[in-house]
Amino acid sequence: MNSMLLLLVMGVVAGCLGAILGIGGGMIITPVLTIMMGLDIKYAIGASIISVIATSSGSTIAYLKDDMLNLRVAMFLEIATTVGAIMGALLVGVFSSSFLYVLFGFFLLYSTYNMIRKLFSKKGEGVYTGSDPVVEKFKLASTYYDKAEQKQIDYSMKNVPGGFVMMWAAGLASGLLGIGSGAFKVIAMDTIMKMPLKPSSATSNLMMGVTAAASATVYFFNGSIRPDIAGPLAIGVLVGATIGARLMQFLKPRIIRMIFIPIILYMGLQMALKGFGVNI
Amino acid sequence: MQSHEETRKVELIIGKILRIGVSISAIVILIGVALYFMNGSGYVGNSFPRRFSAIFNGLAAGKSYAVIMSGVFLLILTPVLRVVVSIYAFYKEHDTLYVVITTIVLVILMFAMFMGYRS
Fold first, then answer.
1. Secondary structure letter of residue A95 according to DSSP
2. Contacts of residue A4 in chain B, CB cutoff 8 Å?
3. ipTM, 2 decimals?
4. How far apart are CA A99 and CA A29, in angstroms?
5. Can you tell which superkingdom this protein's organism belongs to (chain B) (predicted)?
6. Which chain B residue shows the shortest CA-CA distance from A90?
7. A53 and B76: CB-CB below 8 Å?
8. Confidence class of residue B99 from pLDDT cuts 50, 70 and 90?
9. What is chain A's Cα-based Rg?
10. Are A86 and B111 inside 8 Å of each other by CB?
């Protein structure tokens, strides 16, 4: 009973944070399950993947209703992510995972630096509205209503091929290393493609569930997903994601970025160190 | 170029269908958890069903873990539902390009899930 209650509460927290930031919440769930509850890492990973799907599905309902996400960008980039994920799963063992951890870790650290620079830049959360042939061909430009700033924001984007490659790499990383790729998705849209942070996070939320569904079937049928853990956790995450998706709309993009920065800094350090054989 | 209004309508339809799918999976999981507190897991020790045949047998016998696993599996299917409904929505919008793009996503996803089932 107590452990189910703990799972429920942890799910609410992870779902809420995940929905706001467009990440899966695995980084919260895995350490709590392994360190605090002494659970085998296999079941912790199974639980994380269920949390990713629950965050994605719970928040997407709200983000669709409030017109926060960009369905075309999601589906267009989803091709890259899913292909990357399958290639990653097939290539497990071909590349050295230490090298990949270091590579992706340093990429996250570099992104942290970029995000901090953006936080302190005079232009602030400037919105890119220029024209771009790829954006026009694929009808990717869109609009959203920012409840925190109380205005309609029309936005465009650029560097779509760069974002596409980044999404492919994100999928590859999740297939090869079994890590969630929400943070990489947000970075691809926000930092590379210059999409505003809120639709980037909402769109990442929609996408990460689709990417995770394939690995979730693997974990489901190989017995990594335990009903006594996944059940209460999924309910908690669904509740948390619903709350988070409402909350996010009232947060200023700058605040969301301030929450995002320490998280990718931590993830980057953790991954880079893991590549050098140090676990934190 | 489609107007944003049309896209809105489509997004609202997807949202509604997705909500139904997520609610069903959540209700099944909750029923399973309630059954667990009433009757226990229904399985010996820490074991639980994970292949379809075992889950169906457990469901027929009203075992709580089988009910929870069914709900979790339905939850795993919700992203697939999202992609399927998106194809229909883009079709209603006469957006052939995105019907093709989203169908490609569905095919890749089904392939990956099939690989997952086989592994």
1. S
2. 33
3. 0.92
4. 25
5. Bacteria
6. B115
7. yes
8. very high
9. 18
10. yes
Q: Bridge-partner residues for A155, per DSSP? A: A142
The whole-angstrom separation of Cα B2 and Cα B6 is 7
> What residue of B is the nearest CA neighbor of A237?
B26
H or E, element range at A184:
helix A182-187
Paired strand residues for A146: A151
What type of residue is A96? S
**Which range of residues forms the domain containing residue B109?**
4-118
Give the pLDDT mean for B81-91. Answer: 92
The reported pTM is: 0.93
The nearest CA of chain A is from the CA of B61 a distance in Å of 17
- Distance CA(A67)–CA(A45), nearest Å, equals 32
User: What are the tokens at B75?
Assistant: 């939850």
- Measured in angstroms, the CA of A132 and the nearest CA of chain B are apart by 15
pLDDT in tens, A155-165: 999 999 999 99
- Count the domains in chain B: 1
Backbone angles phi, psi at A145, to 5 degrees: -100, 120
Are the C-beta atoms of residues A161 and A77 closer than 8 Å to each other? no
Q: Which DSSP string do the residues of A233-277 spell out, in sequence order?
A: HHHHHHHHHHHHHHHHHHS-HHHHHHHHHHHHHHHHHHHHHHHTT
Residue A229's closest chain B neighbor by CA? B68
- Which tokens hold the place of B52? 């379809």
Which among A130, A182, A121, A148 has a CA at the least distance from the CA of A250? A148
Pairs of CB atoms within 8 A across A/B: 161
Q: Which residue has the tokens 């990442």?
A: A204
The confidence score (pLDDT) of residue B1 equals 45
Cα distances (Å, whole numbers) of residue A165 to A81, A171, A199, A229, B49: 9, 10, 19, 35, 39
Q: Which residue has tokens 């170029």?
A: B1
pLDDT band at B14 (very low <50, low <70, confident <90, very high): confident
Task: Count helices and strands (H / E) in chain B.
Answer: 4, 0
Q: Which two tokens stand for residue A206?
A: 């929609």
- Residue A260 Cα to chain centre, angstroms: 11
List the helix and strand counts (H, then E) for chain A: 11, 2
